[in-house]
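Support request from a user on the community tier.

User writes: "When I paste my structure tokens into the form, the page sometimes reloads and wipes my input. The last time it worked, I copied everything first. Here is what I submitted, just in case something in the input itself triggers the reload:"
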């Protein structure tokens, strides 16, 4: 993949991950009771695995160490920033208000769309389907990698359902 393409992929993924992380941070900040504990556990697992994916994306993009550190720091602070925002608006927030539902729905659609694009186009197309290193592996190894991909996707979906 061309160098500019890798950099564009990381920027798109960074934007989607940052927006998504702020949204789930706000969701956690306005949540109370037993729901808070379930959501916190799901977010911890989700952010851990998303962080690994993000770190791998940064690593293969061949950006400088300074830029890699900056992008990882931005990712690391977005959920806590969203959490702080959620706590700040908790007293005035109504999760059943039309405005809150519209804002949350539109934000989730944008973030989800970007993350789906990144996963399907950047990961599936450029890292698997057209990647000569991947295609050069044995059939058994590729099948094992496909199984790992779908198993990971299923686990992330299960975590999302749990939250």
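"...and here is what came back when it finally went through:"
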């Amino acid at each position: 993949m061309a160098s500019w393409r890798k950099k564009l992929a990381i920027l798109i993924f960074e934007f989607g991950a940052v927006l998504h992380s702020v949204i789930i941070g706000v969701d956690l900040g306005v949540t109370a009771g037993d729901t808070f504990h379930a959501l916190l556990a799901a977010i911890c697992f989700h952010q851990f695995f998303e962080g690994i994916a993000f770190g791998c994306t940064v690593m293969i993009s061949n950006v400088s160490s300074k830029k890699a550190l900056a992008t990882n720091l931005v990712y690391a602070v977005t959920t806590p920033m969203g959490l702080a925002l959620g706590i700040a608006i908790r007293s005035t927030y109504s999760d059943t208000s039309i405005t809150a539902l519209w804002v949350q729905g539109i934000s989730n659609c944008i973030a989800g769309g970007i993350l789906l694009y990144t996963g399907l186009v950047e990961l599936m197309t450029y890292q698997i389907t057209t990647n000569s290193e991947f295609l050069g592996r044995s059939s058994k190894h590729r099948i094992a990698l496909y199984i790992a991909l779908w198993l990971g996707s299923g686990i992330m979906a299960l975590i999302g359902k749990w939250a």
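Agent notes: The reload is a front-end session timeout and is unrelated to the input. The radius of gyration is 18 Å. The chain has a mean pLDDT of 84. Escalated to web team.
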